């Protein structure tokens, strides 16, 4: 059998490059954010990285360092993973942020305080506390976003605009990472005023909330 000609080899190579390019375009990157030694790294990853493997994340993902005081509130329509060691940095990243698909991984054995984070539009939550408890990853489906385009890309949106159009608000009890128990939640519908109906969450009194709509509030613990 005669070997393939030079022109044939060039054509096969071009087709291979085209196929690889189409394949990589079809891969939807996910966002990974982690905090370590007072720095925040924001990464775009084409594959899932083993939890808390900072070296692998820096090697396999496209990452950039973000200064804590330069954090901007954005919306995440795609999958977001956050590796954290304390609630202070996590609160800066998540409080009053629209996130649909969220995974939180505790990367230390620290005991976390009973603090609540307020997250808008959360549909699915996964948690991993293996650094503190030898337990498997847990997953919780909060609600299904049937009106969301599954092919939509992550797009930063105004923080105030997020909350003015947000109907689903989740309160996440960070102390759940201290317990070796199942992830639980309950939801309350037709909440007219979060600030009045949930007085313990005083920060809502200083945050603009629409007064002509009702909310579905989910408490995750």
Automatic annotation (TrEMBL):
Keyword Signal listed: yes
Keyword Transmembrane belongs to the record: no
InterPro entries per record: ECPIP
Lineage: Eukaryota, Metazoa, Chordata, Craniata, Vertebrata
Protein name as it appears in the record: Chromosome 21 open reading frame 62
Pfam families: ECPIP (PF15137)
Signal peptide region: 1-26
Coiled-coil intervals, chain numbering: none
Ranges where the record places region Disordered: 136-155
Keywords recorded for this protein, A-Z: Signal
Basic and acidic residues: bias regions: 145-155
Annotated source species: Spermophilus dauricus (Daurian ground squirrel)
